[in-house]
Design goal:
The protein is α/β, with parallel strands linked by helices. The chain is built from ten helices and twelve strands. It is globular and about 55 Å long.
Length: 278
Amino acid sequence: MDQGKELIKLALFGQPVKSSLSPAIHRMFAVQVGLDIEYRLIEPEIGHFPRALEEFRSAGGVGCNITLPFKRDAWKLAAGASPEVSQAQAANTLVLQESGWFAHTTDGAGLIADLTGNHGLGISGLRVLILGAGGAAAGILGSLLAENPQQIILVNRNLERARSLSERFEASGKVSVTSWSELSGQSAFNLVINATSLGHKGEAPPINTSSFAEGGLCYDMNYFKASQPLKKLCEDMHRPYIDGLGMLVEQAAKSFSIWTSKMPKTPAVIEAVRREAG
């Protein structure tokens, strides 16, 4: 640590997080902008997140990322929240303010930054299909809608959950719901986003070529091993595929800028993380 710099204490809360890439990513950011950080991995038992968060604050913590299963808890505990968090009812970033923790969600911004900045895809006017209606989908809906797509369809096994999510964004008039059995009756999509966790079970969502418009592509919020089943399916269908590693780094950069007021450059970090993973 540079003795002339204050150590910025950060952390990731989740269960499990031992294999998280976040510490390495944020260390690379810190080197870029000339800051000294400590980025811890904290795995509270279920029900113990509030106490663990308070212990972190008492030890000098000023910012943290939140992943499953504590994103909703973070939203509820926060003294204030961004509009995106209030709609998503989940937070992935907390920053300490005088009034207490303030909640942000950077997942949607990270997705848009990766799609538009790293891959040159404009969202405006596209028909978008989101696979899943859980927390991952909730975290990106607001940012996607801000890009003015033609329509967003949520497909989910639990239609009640999907309808509940769509109702939070009903003012846009652009979010609809369908079941997996009725998906084949939908018009084709320009962009299919996988927000399910099926890849962690070694499974791919049950999509086929009929879901894709000409030139349509698949974006998987998963990466590395969890992305392989859907990547293989897209290869078999001859459909363009993008994994979620870029989104991971981009959302981390947004969080880093919230904590430090410094926005790191992401392309070299994305490349380094992918290279180190082999």
